[in-house]
Design a protein that fits this description.
Elements: H1 9-13, E1 18-26, H2 30-38, E2 50-58, E3 64-72, E4 77-87, E5 92-96, E6 104-113, E7 119-128, H3 137-141, H4 143-158
Antiparallel strand pairs: 1-7, 2-3, 3-4, 4-5, 5-6, 6-7
Length: 162
Amino acid sequence: MPAARAIDSSALTDVQPLTTSATATLPVPAGAAFEALADIGAAPDWLSVLRSARVLEHDPSGRPARVAFVGRLRRASIGYTLEYSYDDEQLTIAWRSPAGASAQVNGEASFVPLSATACMISYTVSLEVPVGPWADDGFEQHPASAVVSWFREHLRSQAPRS
């Protein structure tokens, strides 16, 4: 068995945050898109950089409040936990890593109705992750655009066929 390699801990402290934003039209009503994204436990089904999501706590309305994730890297995995909050009136979901966590993932998604059958998503994410690269090149370059694209495809795949 090969000997374990030591990791230079100074490399873990010199992580530059990556913040990206994306906006797109979605083919569903705003409320439906909000609820689909709030189904955090199902995110690994459509978000290719996630291996798993385990809901640790629910909020009073039954939505995920704390979720443990395992993310896919090219040659490894990374575990991290996020805390979620929801604003039903503004159709906004926000998430953040606990203070002091080595991997910091923070963001917000909001939905604006455009019609009875479409809405706009505005999605921002900030990543400070001391390892990488991620398993998907698109996510590695612009995480928000990748997530919005995958989410739109997920919604289209869930739509009833005529």
